[in-house]
C-alpha cells in the first residue's frame, strides 16, 4: 500500500523544500514563497489534469482524484488508474472516501478556486431550475445512490458554515475595567470555548456572548489577541 496520506504528502513537500530551497519550512521563521507549479503534482487530478474538486481518496492505495472523475472512471474499471491496484472485486465505490483535508489544502493554495467552483455549481442548478441537495444534519456519513457522502447542499437554506474549516476560540472576561467597578453583577460563562467557521466575524461572537450572558449588545465589548501577543485588537 502506497503511503500518500496527508502526513506523507506533507513530509514529501518538506523534503522537496529542503532540497530545492535549502531550508526547513518547519524550523525556518522567515516567509517561504513557492511557485504553485512546484506543488501541482500533489494537488492536480491524474484523470482530468485539473485541481482537485471534492477530493476523493481510494482507501486501498491512498491515491486521490476528483470525485466526479474517479466515479466515472470506476464505471468501467475496478483498478486504480495510477497504480493499477484492484480497489474492490465487485463494488469499487465502497472503497472511496472524501478527503476533506486535501480539499482544504487545495482551496488554500489556489486563489479563487473555491469561489469559482461555488459559482459554477450555483449556475448549473439555476440554469436547470433545480434545488441543491441539502445534507441532513448529523448525517455526514450518509451515502447517496453512488455510495459516496453528499457534498452538495443549498446555501440559501442550509447552515453551510458547518462545512467550513473550523477554528477553536477561548472567550474570557477581562477584569479591572471601569465598567466592572460600576457594575458589580458578575457574569460568568459556563462554556468559554467556542468552535466556529473560519469565516465567523467578531459580530457573530458578540451575538453568542449576548445570548449566553443574557445581556444587550451595547454591554458587550470584545478584544482579541492576534498571532503577535503585543498586538491587541478591539471589536
From TrEMBL:
Name the UniProt key words of this record, in alphabetical order. Metal-binding, Nucleus, Repressor, Transcription, Transcription regulation, Zinc, Zinc-finger
Under SMART domains, the record lists:
RING
Molecular functions per Gene Ontology: promoter-specific chromatin binding; zinc ion binding
Q: Which compartments does it reside in?
A: Nucleus
Q: Where is the RING-type domain?
A: 45-84
The keyword Transferase appears for this protein: no
Give the matching SUPFAM superfamilies. RING/U-box
| Record Pfam families | zf-C3HC4_2 (PF13923)
What protein am I looking at?
Polycomb group RING finger protein 1
Q: State the species of origin.
A: Esox lucius (Northern pike)
Its taxonomic path starts at: Eukaryota, Metazoa, Chordata, Craniata, Vertebrata
